[in-house]
Amino acid sequence: MVAALVLLAASCTGEERTYQAAGLQNRLPLAPNPYIELPLGTVRPEGWLLHQLKLMRDGMTGHLDELYPPVVGSRNGWLGGDGDGWERGPYWLDGLVPLAWLLEDDSLKAKAMPWIEWTLNSQTDEGYFGPVPFETEPEPEPGIQKSRRRDWWPKMVMLKVLQQYYEATGDGRVTDLMSRYFRYQLARLPDTPLDHWSFWANRRGGDNLMMVYWLYNITGESFLLELADLIHEQTFPWTEVFLNDDCYGGAELDHLYPYNTGNRYPFDDSLIGRLCVEQLQAFHCVNLAQGIKEPVIRSQQDPRLEHLAAVKKAFRDIRRFHGQPQGMYGGDEPLHGGVPTQGIELCSVVELMYSLEKMIGVTGDVEFMDHLERIAYNALPAQISDDFSSRQYFQQANQVMLTRHRHNFYEEDHHGNTDLCFGLLTGYPCCTCNMHQGWPKLVTHLWYGTADGGLAAVMFAPCTVRTRTGDGTDVSIRQVTGYPFEEKVRFLISLPRPSAFPLHVRIPGWCSEALLSLNGRPLQTEPGGRMAVVHRKWEDGDLLELHLPMKTKLERWVEHSVSVHRGPLVYALKIGESWSHVDSTDQWGAFDEVRPSDIWNYGLLEAAVLDPENGFEFSVQAQAPGSGTDRFSAENPEFYPWSIDSAPVLLKTRGKVIPDWTLYREMAGPLPHSLPLQHLENEHSELITLIPYGCTTLRITEFPVVR
Length: 707
Ligand SMILES: [Zn+2]
Description:
Helix content is 33%, strand content 19%. It is of the alpha+beta class. Among the domains are: 68-235, Glycosyltransferase (Alpha/alpha barrel), CATH 1.50.10.20; 447-481 and 488-547, Immunoglobulin-like, CATH 2.60.40; 552-706, no CATH class. The strands form seven sheets. Strands 18, 19, 20, 23, 24, 25, 28 and 29 form an eight-stranded mixed β-sheet that branches. Strands 4-10-11-12-17-14-15 form a seven-stranded antiparallel β-sheet. Helix 5 (88-103) crosses helix 6, helix 7 (152-169) packs parallel to helix 10 (205-219) and helix 18 runs antiparallel to helix 19. The longest helix is centred in the N-terminal third of the chain and has 18 residues, at 152-169. The site of zinc ion (ZN) has 6 residues, from helix 18 and helix 20.
């Protein structure tokens, strides 16, 4: 159905196009992509992943209009009202729309459609769409972003919403609106550049750019390539900044807050030449999460190798200077170094996931897939409550107490010191609206079409993809798996007739050697960090089984601390939680505080760190529901794996309490350096339990090492 709609849309241009697995390959002169995104609805969630989406439906995603009416209620400017007219309405829709169509839920669609209809009908003769600009600026209202209605930035979000709606429904009004809007941009950007109304739009221009390429692939209108050049020119020069080697580190810059200094188009080359990722405060955390994809998006039209090289270097620098083990970085909100108590904003989690999903298509790069997996299966579930009713503005790798208190975050004085508390409005409410895109977009990007007419399983989770192969055969492939908690992924293939196509399967970089079996017989072994490709004439009922042996591995972080990893999961100290509700009535609303009911200041034993395979004992929780190979899969539709009580797997090891590692400002104090700590040599050790990071609310993830 979806495939047919996409074909129909393109056939209107009267041009022969190449389709791979019902996705849309780039149109010349854009470089062809190795992997091609599939339309919303092609991949459907099952098992724990389906249950996760149902929790969203029943929680904040399905009810945000009732929970947060001052902003996403009927006064919103994207519904024609005089209220909030900036990013938050589109943010919500960017998760609500894919959720509604993935679940085929009529009540969710009914919530989304008034926004879609109003937006589609809002376009003026000159091509503008979105909230109606005020003739005279209204009085400000606390908590509502009413003004800047012409800003290019929030329209970039709504373009992403409309794209997904189009891919699910084929509603041709979307491509008509975009075509007219992009002509309007081409006419207006020379006089009112991307950052005319806010600097956010020049940092996030890559989001605008990718939508221009998307439309170009459907309509082939040549002015779109001209517009793409203009948008790139007005977008913050991420490639140049990422490649800077001799960035300036002296006092002269220290007083600056580079992420929001001028830096407007046309950019100041002398300042651009001195910025780089390693500097504290260099970038806003969410701008970096969004901007990092721009060089790769741009490389489709400008295939210089330096774009990808710049992004690769940026990821290495982020890891080195600001990184945390769950795949994110300290940025609260400017970049803030590698201390594991610096905050990670939820918006940066979901935006970096989305950037990686886009970059996977353009590059086919397994490192990007591995990185997406690490964020999705560790950082994402940890920052949102189990019932999807509240979230943290910031999470920390070492997170032992969530109270309203001054910590060490750049922006906390503006946030009533509520950044760590679970609530609807704690910290800052952008994430309240933007968090919803994380899980639904992950579902869509579990599979891609391939340039050679096949399909690619780039992420593993219980799901089914239904699409069409290069020779036009309808195919359905079901992933039966308890991944990321088990080592095996079974691909069940259904076809009306035999069909030859390549099946690409990611072998993660963390896996030294994977085994592929076909119909019970070993087929081939594959080294990690690449895509395995199985060329074959597939038959109905074929079963391809992927076995990814998981081993306990350690990584080093600041102060020579270590984090513990096994396969896709990061493991963190299990800490008992004591929750208390605070009925606050100020602008940050009611919230929950969480205090530890267990000791948290453990170091890991040097002996275990030197021999992790023997130093950590892995086990599957006996109380995990179900049995056998379907333990975590569609057979258990109510299974929720991401809580301290339901953690499906765990590691046991021995640790020692470090008495002088104590609280500082109601968070874990500075990490003692791991020489290792020798002064505890004669103290006794205790058995401690580590569970997946995504199951924890309180945790130690970066451990000191003791002898
Ligand atoms: Zn946010």
